[in-house]
DNA sequence: GCTCTGCAAAGAGGA
């Protein structure tokens, strides 16, 4: 067996930031003139410390070049928060190329003597942004092309899989389960059958259009090699050829030929996060290995990396193993080496985790980390807007590029962003290729791409590890239940003290770690139940093999949510295909939406009666909306003003469309909104009104779907499919094209997220109201760049596509008139006399009035009077704390105070919530507490928003009581307008201090 | 100056 020894990774690293030094100068120091945005350094979570897990902040960077000697980089660093106690870090022998700038956070490994660290060829590592964990595959793929590595991090999930990949995944699964259980021929065959003909990989097979038998055939070719490997490395290692493997305590230096015996499998898919090396990854197999050599045997716990493809023993494969040896350091003694196991042949290669290879890989990691964190920059001191930075350079290797899965994104970015940069040069042969591959895009499209790419970069969260909510000091109790394949129910008990309710909620995503160092990120999953001191979680891994006394912590996992989807959609929008071209024309270039003339051409005669029946239940504008949608060739926007029956309208629309034989994709940003519509729809379906029955999972289970053909049938038989906008990554949407797509809550969804479902439909309907709250954007810069503009708002300028639902069934006329005056210009009308005149029913009012005989409480009488549907309580003279009353409020702190007070009065039936959370809902009586009570303070931005005020005042059906200090609130233009109106209608009263509020 | 929804993930091979 030919085994290579200690392959030295000679990697040429590219650097194209500003401080590359000139070698003609004798001695000079450059301070960096690029002011990059440093997402780590600016983060308050970066905790500086000394010791083993040190974190230093870089204060100054100097490049030192002496004639005739190699260049060095000197870093002035500190681990003290006050930025005193400076230390020096000297980078040599290639480490000086690490693109570190002042302000960066670094981790140092190695020796430090009297305040000076030396990182050179022989010892030490510098880890740039150690809290940015990069996966083993990202780093090993960056060897060939760093640009591709960075692009696939950003456009995660935009690479479609291949048949070989799926076969690879299944082979991994079979091998991993076999070696932990039973590697006999009979059992392995049985397992292979169970996995291939089971449900686990059906969706992937459907997506790739593969049949189970075809996959089984490929799998079977591998199985003999499984047994050969087991024979060679588990049962009869004596028969094995010797391999070259040198470990530090392996005796004499020449004693490097040994035989390998795998004695025990300790873990499968072991997940390790290493904030020491800034790495993360999953180790296929963690095994106890005995190394037999002349001077005896020694045992190590080592990583095995499985490969089902061609037996290449390539740098990429070997690098992955070397990175896993580094990851292993978090959990156990240095394995110093690992193995590459090629499943096709059963051959196993040792891979030594030698210092020089580890060093080169860490340098590579630092470069990838640099590019990921410096994706934007601010070029001038005066101008503060961020700009897109260049990606790692395009490599000059057409063979590699030809098969690259990121080619589209690579060319797109070059064309839209980099071609304008003087500093970026492309391989000449590639320039015409880039131009050709992007020629379908107009300048407006490239601009749209750049803008939205920048917008999503500014709010990208790169760092996994945050000092967030955590419940610690937990031990595992009871048995672990395997609820379904790969889903393990765990129970944790707090060792002391109760679990604070706010820290973990049912349904939250959690990361389970050991409290002990090195046990970070053991498993991820969801919170099932929280009670007192106990938590149950559904985790992706079974943790019962860990020592009984392991102390755990559960962290709320916010992850990097939502950035993958928009980047993916943006990339898709720029593709050279008819669906994308159409959307570009409509969305970017505002092409006028078209409508057909006559309903008769879309309405099949046999559906006429059904449609007429459904229309009977609708009002005039709702009927108009139905007509408009049926006539549309491109899209329709339905403005659903408050209380105008959006859900009813959507239901009717779905029913009419499917009666006409159209397929419909129904989506919304939130699952609850999708559920609402489905629940209403379920009533008409004459099936059990529990929507659980309609989930894809449940349908497959109840019909015991076992083959790809069955699955295909199920998918094709559903004329109406509902999902959240993020959920359109489901395989069903990869092949199916719907006639219509309806997007609910469209004015609250970010443009690029809203785009997702539109790719799989011929026409779309957006339902929303831009006078209510827009998409939530936390990042101020992203907001300035226009991120909160929903697709609904953007397309609204094409008025011919807009239908307004103006007849509302929620508010009585007095309440409605406020909103009409404020934003709807009188368009809103009551659905009936009954709605218009409805007042609140207070059965105990008479009795209560007697109790309120006291003149000082006469204001209360006025407020309670059902014939006063709108009332503004002026707290100006009363001096009453605004915190004394309230149900909805713009401020969460106010709500907390109110909730606490109500709890004291044992009143928990009244729902207290923010204006934002109340959007889309209503109540008979709404009390709005505006809180503000001073004029001179800084004005908050919350009350300046017309849309928020509009939402606040349109939640009440019968009675709207607003509380606040009139002069304070008049500083806000929307409230000023409202108060002016109320004044003219004599709807403002003053009130005195009240002591009890349990009257409602 | 304070409003908060979304979601699995690293790797599965190919040249």
UniProtKB/TrEMBL annotation:
GO cellular-component term (any): nucleus
Q: Which organism is it from?
A: Geospiza parvula
Entry's family note: Belongs to the DNA2/NAM7 helicase family.
Keyword match Nucleus: yes
What region holds the DNA2/NAM7 helicase-like C-terminal domain?
787-877, 878-965
According to its UniProt record, where is this protein mainly located?
A: nucleus
Q: Which residues form the DNA2/NAM7 helicase helicase domain?
A: 618-687, 696-778
Any one Gene Ontology BP term: DNA replication, Okazaki fragment processing
Explain the purpose of this protein.
Answer: Key enzyme involved in DNA replication and DNA repair. Involved in Okazaki fragments processing by cleaving long flaps that escape FEN1: flaps that are longer than 27 nucleotides are coated by replication protein A complex (RPA), leading to recruit DNA2 which cleaves the flap until it is too short to bind RPA and becomes a substrate for FEN1. Also involved in 5'-end resection of DNA during double-strand break (DSB) repair by mediating the cleavage of 5'-ssDNA.
How is this protein named in the record?
A: DNA replication ATP-dependent helicase/nuclease
- Identify the Gene3D superfamilies for this entry: 3.90.320.10, P-loop containing nucleotide triphosphate hydrolases (3.40.50.300)
Give all residue intervals belonging to the DNA replication factor Dna2 N-terminal domain. 84-289
Keywords assigned by UniProt, alphabetized: 4Fe-4S, ATP-binding, DNA damage, DNA repair, DNA replication, DNA-binding, Endonuclease, Helicase, Hydrolase, Iron, Iron-sulfur, Metal-binding, Mitochondrion, Multifunctional enzyme, Nuclease, Nucleotide-binding, Nucleus
Provide the catalytic activity annotation: ATP + H2O = ADP + phosphate + H(+)
Q: What are the residue boundaries of the DNA2 rift barrel domain, all occurrences included?
A: 466-558
Which InterPro entries does the entry link to?
Dna2/JHS1_DEXXQ-box, DNA2/NAM7-like, DNA2/NAM7-like_C, DNA2/NAM7_AAA_11, DNA2_Rift, DNA_replication_fac_Dna2_N, P-loop_NTPase, PDDEXK-like_dom_sf
Q: What cofactors does this protein use?
A: [4Fe-4S] cluster
What PANTHER family does the database record attribute to this sequence? DNA REPLICATION ATP-DEPENDENT HELICASE_NUCLEASE DNA2 (PTHR10887:SF433), DNA2/NAM7 HELICASE FAMILY (PTHR10887)
Q: What is its EC number?
A: 3.1.-.-, 3.6.4.12
Tell me one GO molecular function of this protein.
single-stranded DNA helicase activity
Localization, UniProt: Nucleus; Mitochondrion
